Amino acid sequence: MKPDYKNWVPKSMVYGLAGGTLAAFILFLLLGAAGMILQGTPRLVCGIIFGIGTLVLLFFTVWMGALHRTFDYNGKRKLAKTIIEGTAKYVTIPDGGTGLDVGCGSGALTIACAKRNPNASMVGCDIWSGAYKAVFTKKRCEDNAKAEGVSNVRFEEGNAIHLPFEDESFDAVTSNYVYHNISGYDKQKLLLETLRVLKKGGTFAIHDLMSQARYGDMEALVKRLKAEGYEEVRLIDTTDGTFMSKKEVAWLGLAGSTLLIGKK
Q1: Of 65, 185, 202, 248, which shows the fewest CB atoms inside 10 Å?
Q2: Fold held by 79-263
Q3: DSSP 8-state symbol, 73
Q4: Average of pLDDT values for 171-178?
Q5: How far apart are the first and last CA of the chain?
Q6: Is-above-0.85 flag for pTM?
Q7: Residue 129: helix, strand or coil by DSSP?
Q8: Alpha carbons 162 and 17: distance in angstroms, whole number
Q9: Is the sign of the CA dihedral 70, 76, 81, 85 positive or negative?
Q10: Checking phi first, is residue 184 left (phi over 0); if not, alpha (psi -120 to 50) or beta?
Q11: What is the SS3 string spanning 140-167?
Q12: How far apart are CA 262 and CA 114, in angstroms?
């Protein structure tokens, strides 16, 4: 049995876009270019609409296909694995302690942290709903842990907006590419909600698209946390070759990828 961490750009999405592109192109030919059904202004309008639609859908098909191949755990680049393992190395849990992975998806980061901290345990939480509910599930997390031979993990439901845990419950907290997906909420407040459950002296490693447009002034947050007594707070730009190159960032649309790490 092998682990299956899936892909945040599922094949079904790529195939759906490809099907939409083909349909739009056929309609462009029938209603616009060929002139077999429509003539005059209706033909021109349909030609423009379906022509532009074909190009737009083709662009997204190629882009999503590239993203799928790049992040695929079984592909050549394995960017997802690079990010997961790179984030996990900053998660340190004392023997007998417990760490939390927020928005665990298919369990990849939870399991990677558990492997690196065999004398501690990890909890992975997620709501496993929305657009990815058919791809990422609690059962998939548990199956992946079993396939990896990792027993010091457990998975339970938990929403990043309001985590179902008491203050200072965990010795480490981590997350990967989660908060930017939560629309309508202040991203820095989501970070603070995660840090709420971190014990004094605990470590954190949170990776996300922390651009100014999404997160606001992150340097100001770093200063705030230090003023509140955090022992260490640091931002790491992971687009400088740490996880990915600037060239990859440009065509993958991952600008702002940053690690927030430190110790409370």
Answers
A1: 185
A2: Rossmann fold (3.40.50)
A3: T
A4: 97
A5: 39
A6: yes
A7: coil
A8: 34
A9: negative
A10: left
A11: HHHHHHHHHCCCCEEEEECECCECCCCC
A12: 19
